[in-house]
Structure formats: C-alpha cells, structure tokens
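Case 307 in the screening queue. Each case pairs one protein sequence with one candidate compound; here the compound is 3-hydroxybutanoyl-coenzyme A. For every case the pipeline is the same: read the inputs, emit a complex structure as tokens, and attach any notable structural observations.

Predict complex for case 307.
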Amino acid sequence: MSDKKLEEFENKLKADIKIEPRDWMPDDYRKNLIRMMSQHAHSEIVGMLPEGNWITRAPSLKRKKILMAKVQDEAGHGLYLYCATETLGADRKDLIEQLNTGKAKYASVFNYPTTTWADMGAVGWLVDGAAIMNQVSLQRTSYAPYSRAMVRICKEESFHQRQGFEIMEVMSNGTKEQREMAQDALDRWWWPALMMFGPHDANSPRSAKSLLWKIKRETNDELRQRFVDRVVPQADFLGLKIPDPDLKWNEKKGGHDFGEIDWDEFYSVVNGNGPCNRERLKARTEADENGRWVREAAEAYAAKHAS
Ligand code: 3HC
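Case 307 output:
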C-alpha cells in the first residue's frame, strides 16, 4: 500500500471529504463496505417477506395499498444498495449467491414470524424505527454512494415508521381484543428490534475500524440507547407496556436503563437457527430460480443490442 495514497485517504476522512468510487481506498475499507452494504441490501430484500405475508390479508383496501407501497419501497432500497455495493467492484450475482447459500448475513429481526395484523404495526413502528435510527446516522458515512443511498432511503423509511405507528395507535385504541393483539405484537418484536443495532460495542469486532474509517459515525450502543429513549414515550402514548422489567428512567444518565438482550438468542438466530431462517432462504432461492428466465432474457437482449 503506498503511504502517500494512504495519507491522502486519511486526510480526506479527517476533513470529512467523502470517498468516491474512483478514489484510492485501502482494501480492508473496501471489503468492510462490501460486507456491510450488501448485508444491508439483503436485509431490505428479506425484510419484504414478513410483511408480504400480510398483503393478501390486510383488513381493508386502504391498509393493503399502504402495505404494498411499503414492501415495494423495500425492494427499491435493496436494489439501490446493491447498485451502491457494485460501485466497489462487487458482482451482484456473487452477492445474491452469498445470501441464498446462507454465507451472507441479513438483519436477524426478519427471521421472526408475523402472526397477526398487529405485527404489521409493530414491524413498521419498531423495526423501521430502529432502521431509521441507524440509517440517519449512516447518511454521514464516509463512502459517498452509501451516504447518498441513505439520504434517499431515509425519506421513505419515515413513512414506513409512521404507518406502523398508526396501525398500533388504531389497535391500541380499539376493542379489547385489538389492544391485546397490539400488546402481544410489542411483546414479541421489542427485543428483536433492539438486536438490530448489533452486539454491544465491547463485543463488536467490526465497530472500531468502522468508526476509525467513519463508515459508522456512532456506535451500536449509542444508537440503541437513542432508539429506546425515543420509543418509550411512544409506547406510553399508546398505552402499551414495553416487555422489560428493568426499563426505567435514569436521571443522571439522561436516558433509560434497560434490560440485557438475550445474546444466546441473538447469535443463534444470526447463525441460522431462528424461527423463520430456513423459510426466508427458501423463499429467496425460489424467487431467484423463478426469475432466472427474466434475467437470461434481459442479458440475451443486452448482448444482442450491445454492438
Ligand atoms: N442481524 C444479523 N447480523 C448482525 C446483526 C443483526 N442484527 N448485528 C450484527 N450482525 C453481525 C454483523 O454483520 C457481523 O457479522 P459479519 O462480520 O459476519 O458481517 C457480526 O454480527 C458482528 O457485528 P458488528 O457489530 O461487529 O458488525 P457491524 O459493525 O457490521 O455492525 C450493524 C452491525 C449495526 C448491523 C451494521 O452492519 C450496520 O449498521 N449495517 C447497516 C444497517 C443495516 O444493515 N441495517 C439492517 C436493517 S435494514 C432494515 O431493517 C430495512 C428496513 O427497511 C426495515
């Protein structure tokens, strides 16, 4: 690695000048970004499945249209992030193969089942709410295409979170059964949503470098704390109880103390043993197989008209 190029790269980071695809960058910086950005894209694509499960069962045409719009947005976010990853020299076919063979990770939260309509509310409110917390921070990431992708994606994520919160508001102000359904959904989605921020900083093998390279601008725990402090008053407003007996306001800290995540569950789901991991990968590999003819036709057309 040429010292001069490394020095120039580091000076750009220091001056908060974004790194563009054609700029020189350390191999490890490139590799870390390909890993993180492709897994982000995989999360968007797999994230379509739990909600897609309810499009045909939405309680009204209005809710069906909103949910369809949201799921379509997620597809667009995934494609946008795959394009951004390709600017680093990654091959999309390789990325998809890594997802379909279980080599690549995606957000563990999507390996939980969506068993009632209230889950559409809890997923939008909590999962998209957590994603926004993380993605707003990533708008300041040092890699320019990723930063630009985040600016665009965050605009749509806020709609995702609002529509989910509105479902929870309607249900928590509805019948006794609807209130119970909303509470049950909060009970099941609270901890998986906290897991989205990753391991504690002390146990995060990637964070130190990611922070040094300004890929990450805040730590896993800082973002998780901000999420908890944002959501607790929202749950209070809904009249729902967050399933954490250790949750309490800490005046000295100026934030909430909260219980410990079940890290055995986290790593078990991350490593493929969650309730829906197999179902999710089966759906993705089937979709990939069913779409093969479209890709082949598009490639044949492009090759025929390339000259
Ligand atoms: N699910 C699955 N794997 C996870 C995870 C999670 N919630 N949290 C961490 N991991 C994995 C990491 O990928 C890493 O594994 P790897 O080295 O094999 O890639 C390992 O656990 C160690 O974690 P680290 O904290 O050291 O890894 P990172 O520094 O990459 O931090 C992260 C993890 C916070 C998820 C970070 O990668 C990140 O901010 N990624 C970008 C945002 C993102 O991917 N969000 C996913 C949700 S997108 C979404 O929800 C869509 C929305 O529309 C609903």
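Case 307 observations:
- Strands lie at 248-250, 255-257.
- The two ends are 38 Å apart (CA to CA).
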